[in-house]
Design a protein that fits this description.
The protein is mainly beta and 860 residues long. The protein has three helices and 66 strands. The protein folds into six domains: 94 residues, no CATH class; 103 residues, no CATH class; 85 residues, Ubiquitin-like (UB roll); 132 residues, no CATH class; 96 residues, Immunoglobulins (Immunoglobulin-like, Sandwich), CATH 2.60.40.10; 134 residues, Immunoglobulin-like (Sandwich).
C-alpha cells in the first residue's frame, strides 16, 4: 500500500497544474513590486487603476499585469509645468519597447522596481512692454494643433528680445526669428536660456522686470528651474550726439567705453545701412517748443534687426545718468597729438572736466555734447643716473616719465632732495638741466607741440655705511643719536661720524652679551670717514650664560669650577666647565640633579645655554674642631672642668630639639647618647646644632675624646681638654651684650630694666668652678640644705678689681651649676661700656672665666 501511494503523487501534481491553474498561482511565492515616476506628480495606471508618483504591490511570481501611461504629456493645473513621458526602466535597465506607454509586466523577483521616466518642462513667459500675452494653447499639447493659419502678431515698435529659443515661442509672430512681441515657450528644466534686449532707434531699453524684484538693467541668462515670467521694458529715448572740436572724429568715452565720433564731412558708417534697407532708420523729428512727444512709427522699419546709429550718436533714456570722459591724449590720422581740455554740454553751461556726469533731459530736442581738445606736446623727464624717482603732478608712481601734455596746460614737477635706488644706495639732488629749483611749474608753450620738451634731474651718490651687530637688533650710538642694527647711514664723501657700541646687554637674568670688538678694531668707540663707496662695520659680541649652582639642603655644598666663573656666575658661550662638589660638615653627597646626573661628585658641562646644577646631600652628624666648650660660653682657656656643664656644638647632632630637665638627668634623648670613654653623660637637652650635658666629675684632667651617637647615623667624635678648674659665667639669652645671668636676693633676674644697686645682695651663676664639699652625684640636682660650698677658693673681679663675696658653691636644685653670693659695693662703671654696666669675672686657681656685664642703676 505505501508503494502505490508514492507513485500516485507526481500524477497528482501534474493534474493540479493543468486542471487548476488558479490554485497553482495561489501557491506561487509573492513578489513585492514598486512602481514609481521619475518626477513627483506623474500619473500611471495599473490593471485599470490610476496612481500618482509611487505605488507598492505584492503579486504572485509569474502573474501578468498591465501598466500604462494614458497621458504621455501631463500638465499641471496652472499650465506652467508639464511632464512628458520618456520610457520605462526596470531596476535601472531600459526595457524593450520602453518608449511605449503600455507595458505588460510579468512579476519576477529580478524586476521589483519599475520606473516611468518623464522629462520636466517649465513655461517661460517673456513680455515686451505691455504687449498682451496670449496663453489660449498653453494647456494643450502642440502635437494636437497647428498654428499655420493663425494670425501673426505684429512686432513691438520699441524693441525686441534676442534668444536662441525664440523660434519655438508662441503665439505666431510676423517676425519669428526674435521675440518681437510678447510670447511664451516650454523650456526643459535646468536649461540655461540666453536673453538680450535691443531697442530700435529712437528708443532705449529700460530693464528687465521680474516678479518680486526691482527692474534690472541686465539679465543675460536665466536657468529654467521654475516657471518664469519676465518683462523687457522699453521706453522713448532722447537723441544725444557726441562730437569733438576743433578736430572732429576723435575718440571720447561714454560710460567707460571708447566711442569714435563722426569726422567732418563724413557720413554714417556703412554698417548703418542694413542689407535690403533703403535708408537708415528715421530719427525723431525736432518739434517746436514745448518739445512734446513727436509722432513715432507704428512698427520698426526692420524688426528683429540691430539698427546702428551714426558714430557718436546715442538714444539715451530721459532721466538716466551717464559719465562723459575722453582719452587723456590721442593722435589724429596725421600723427598729431591732441590732449583733452574740457566738455561743453551746451545751454551756456560751464566747461566740465573728465568723468563728468550728465543727466539726460526730458524734452525731445537733440542734445550735442562737445569734447574740446588742444594740440599736444611730448614732454619727457629723465634722471642721471637712470631709474630714480620724480614727482610729477603730485605722483611718484608713474610707469614712465614720458608725457603728452596740452599746449597751455600747467603741470608741476619736482625732484626729491634725497632718494634710495633699487640697490639701497642713497642719492642727493644736485640740479635740473634748466638750472631751475627742485620744484617747478611748467606751462606748455605752443612751440613744444612740434619740438617737445626734455628735462634732466642730476643726482650725486652719497657714501653709505651699514652698521651691523652680531647678534642683531642692538642699539649703537652715532653722533649722539641711537640706531638699532642693522642701520644704514648715508652721508656725503668726507663726512666723519663718531660711533659707540654698547658694552654689554642682558637678554635675561641668565644670558647676556659682552662687546668683543669691531671687525677692524677692538675699541668700543671709533670714528668713520665716508667715501662714495659702501662699507659695512660689524660690532661683534660674545654670549655669556649663567651657571646656577644649587644645594639641597641649601648650605650643604662647596663647589669647585674649572675654569672659575666670571662675575655673577657667567661663562663664555661654548666653554666646557668642569664641576666638582664636596659636602660641608654635616653633609654627604648623594647625587646630581639639573644639567648633571649621576652619583659621582664630579662632572662637566658645555655652556651653550644657561644651566642649573643641583647637588643633593644627605644630612649626617659632624663635629668641628673645638666642638666641646663650656656651656656658659666661650672662655679664655678652651678647657672644661669635671662635673661642669659642657656644650657640644656641631651639625645634625639630633633629629630635633628635646629637653631632658629631669632629676636625675636622662642619658638618652631622641636616641642620642654622648660618651667620654666608657662613660655616658647626663643630658640637659639635645638639638641639631647643640647638646648640653654634664661632664662626669670622675673624668681626670688631660686630653679626652667625646663621641656622639644617634640611631641610623655614624658616630662622630671630638677631642677636648679637661682641667680641674674651668670657670664660666652664664649670660642672658637673646641679648646683644653679654649680660650676666644674675639674680636679686628675691630670685628675680637682674636686667637692664631692673638693674642692680650698690649695697644689694646678688646671686651670680656659672659652671666649672671646681669640686664641692662634699662632692655631689653626677646627673642629680643639688639640694638646698645643706648647701654645698666650693672646695677651692674663688676670686670675684668687679671692673678687674677683687671684690669680696659672701659664699660660693653648688646652685641648689640644679645640675652642674655654681652660685656666688655677694654684696655689690660702690662701683664706677667703665666709661667705655654702654650704659651703666660693670664688668664681672671670676678666677679660680688663677684660671679666669669669661667676662659678663652687670647692669647697675645710675646714682640718684
Amino acid at each position: 500500500m505505501p508503494k502505490l501511494h508514492r507513485l500516485a503523487l507526481p500524477a497528482l501534481a501534474v493534474f493540479t497544474a493543468l486542471c487548476c491553474p488558479l490554485l497553482a498561482q495561489n501557491l506561487a511565492p509573492s513578489v513585492g513590486v514598486q512602481i514609481v515616476t521619475s518626477l513627483p506628480g506623474g500619473s500611471f495606471w495599473v490593471d485599470g487603476t490610476e496612481y500618482r508618483t509611487s505605488a507598492q504591490f505584492s503579486w504572485p511570481e509569474g502573474s501578468k499585469h498591465t501598466i500604462e501611461i494614458r497621458k504621455p504629456l501631463q500638465i499641471n493645473e496652472f499650465c506652467d509645468t508639464r511632464w512628458r513621458f520618456q520610457g520605462w526602466t526596470a531596476g535601472g535597465d531600459t526595457l524593450n519597447e520602453s518608449t511605449s506607454p503600455v507595458l505588460v509586466y510579468t512579476a519576477h523577483a529580478d524586476q521589483r522596481l519599475l520606473t516611468a521616466n518623464f522629462s520636466l518642462q517649465y513655461r517661460l513667459d517673456i513680455l515686451i512692454n505691455d504687449d498682451p500675452l496670449i496663453l489660449d494653447r498653453a494647456c494643450a499639447d502642440e502635437a494636437d494643433f497647428s498654428d499655420e493659419n493663425d494670425v501673426r502678431l505684429p512686432p513691438n515698435p520699441m524693441g525686441f528680445v534676442s534668444s536662441p529659443v525664440a523660434t519655438g515661442f508662441r503665439p505666431p509672430r510676423q517676425f519669428s526669428e526674435c521675440l518681437s512681441t510678447s510670447g511664451w515657450g516650454w523650456i526643459t528644466a535646468g536649461t540655461s536660456v540666453d536673453l538680450n534686449a535691443f531697442a530700435y532707434p529712437g528708443f532705449g531699453f529700460t530693464g528687465w522686470e521680474l516678479p518680486g524684484s526691482p527692474t534690472s538693467g541686465f539679465l543675460g541668462q536665466i536657468v529654467a528651474d521654475r516657471p518664469w515670467r519676465i518683462r523687457a521694458r522699453f521706453n522713448e529715448a532722447r537723441r544725444v550726439t557726441l562730437v569733438t572740436a576743433p578736430l572732429a572724429g576723435l575718440n571720447v568715452v561714454l560710460d567707460r567705453e571708447i566711442i569714435r565720433t563722426r569726422p567732418n564731412g563724413g557720413d554714417c558708417l556703412l554698417t548703418n545701412n542694413l542689407p535690403g534697407s533703403q535708408v537708415p532708420y528715421p530719427t525723431p523729428a525736432n518739434p517746436a517748443p514745448p518739445f512734446s512727444n513727436p509722432s513715432l512709427p507704428q512698427t520698426p522699419y526692420s524688426a528683429c534687426r540691430l539698427i546702428p546709429l551714426c558714430n557718436g550718436e546715442f538714444d539715451l533714456l530721459p532721466g538716466s545718468s551717464h559719465i562723459l570722459a575722453a582719452p587723456t591724449s590721442q593722435q589724429d590720422s596725421l600723427g598729431n597729438i591732441w590732449v583733452f581740455d574740457h566738455w561743453d554740454l551746451g545751454a551756456g553751461g560751464d566747461p566740465s572736466g573728465q568723468n563728468t556726469v550728465v543727466t539726460i533731459p526730458q524734452d525731445y530736442r537733440p542734445h550735442t555734447f562737445t569734447a574740446h581738445f588742444v594740440p599736444g606736446a611730448r614732454v619727457s623727464f629723465v634722471t642721471a643716473p637712470e631709474n630714480l624717482k620724480l614727482r610729477i603732478d603730485g605722483r611718484e608712481n608713474w610707469p614712465g616719465y614720458n608725457f603728452e601734455w596740452g599746449v597751455g596746460h600747467t603741470h608741476k614737477f619736482a625732484a626729491p632732495a634725497e632718494q634710495t635706488d633699487s640697490r639701497g644706495r642713497r642719492w642727493r639732488f644736485v640740479g635740473w638741466s634748466n638750472d631751475g629749483p627742485a620744484e617747478q611749474e611748467l606751462t606748455i608753450p605752443a612751440e613744444a607741440a612740434t619740438q617737445g620738451l626734455r628735462y634732466i634731474a642730476r643726482y650725486e651718490l652719497l657714501g653709505q655705511l651699514t652698521l651691523r651687530s652680531d647678534p642683531a637688533q642692538l642699539t649703537l650710538n652715532v653722533n649722539g643719536e641711537e640706531c638699532t642694527t642693522p642701520c644704514v647711514i648715508d652721508r656725503p664723501a668726507g663726512t666723519e661720524i663718531a660711533i659707540s657700541a654698547v658694552a654689554e646687554r642682558s637678554f635675561s637674568d641668565d644670558t647676556r652679551i659682552e662687546f668683543s670688538g669691531w671687525n677692524d678694531t677692538p675699541s668700543l668707540e671709533r670714528t668713520y670717514s665716508f667715501t662714495q663707496d659702501a662699507h659695512t662695520l660689524t660690532a661683534r659680541y660674545q654670549h655669556l650664560h649663567r651657571l646656577t649652582l644649587l644645594s639641597d639642603p641649601e648650605d650643604g655644598a662647596k663647589y669647585t669650577l674649572t675654569p672659575a666663573a666670571g662675575p655673577g656666575g657667567f661663562f663664555t658661550a661654548g666653554v666646557r666647565v668642569g664641576v666638582s662638589v664636596e659636602g660641608n660638615p654635616g653633609f654627604k653627597f648623594r647625587r646630581w640633579d639639573g644639567a648633571l646626573s649621576g652619583t659621582l661628585p664630579t662632572g662637566s658641562i658645555t655652556m651653550n645655554r644657561p644651566a642649573t646644577i643641583a647637588a643633593r646631600f644627605d644630612r649626617v652628624p659632624a663635629l668641628p674642631e673645638g666642638a666641646v666648650q663650656n656651656a656658659a660660653g666661650e672662655t679664655p682657656d678652651p678647657v672644661v672642668a669635671p662635673g661642669s656643664l659642657i656644650a657640644v656644638r656641631g651639625r645634625h647632632l639630633a633629629p630635633e630639639f628635646e629637653s631632658g630637665y629631669t632629676n636625675p638627668l636622662k642619658q638618652t634623648l631622641l636616641g642620642v647618647t654622648v660618651h667620654v670613654g666608657e662613660r655616658l653623660l647626663p643630658l640637659l637637652h639635645v638639638g641639631p646644632e647643640e647638646i648640653v650635658a654634664q661632664l662626669p666629675s670622675t673624668v681626670p684632667p688631660g686630653e679626652h675624646k667625646l663621641t656622639v651617637r644617634q640611631m641610623d647615623q655614624p658616630p662622630v667624635t671630638a677631642d677636648f681638654e679637661v682641667a680641674t678648674h674651668a670657670p664660666g659665667l652664664f649670660t642672658q639669652p637673646e641679648q646683644e651684650l653679654p649680660y650676666a645671668e644674675i639674680y636679686h636676693a628675691d630670685g628675680k633676674p637682674v636686667t637692664v630694666e631692673h638693674p642692680a644697686k650698690p649695697g644689694e645682695t646678688l646671686l651670680l651663676t656659672g659652671t666649672g668652678f671646681g669640686r664641692t664639699t662634699p662632692n655631689w652625684l653626677d646627673g642629680f640636682a643639688t639640694p638646698e640644705d645643706p648647701p654645698l660650698p666650693l672646695a677651692s677658693p674663688v676670686e670675684l673681679l668687679v671692673e678687674g678689681e677683687i671684690h669680696p663675696h659672701l659664699w660660693v658653691g653648688a646652685q641648689p636644685n640644679r645640675v652642674g651649676r655654681n652660685l656666688l653670693r655677694f654684696v655689690l659695693g660702690p662701683v664706677i662703671p667703665d666709661p667705655e661700656s654702654e650704659g651703666h654696666n660693670v664688668r664681672l669675672q671670676v678666677r679660680v686657681q688663677g684660671r679666669p672665666s669669661n667676662t659678663v656685664l652687670l647692669p647697675v642703676a645710675p646714682p640718684e
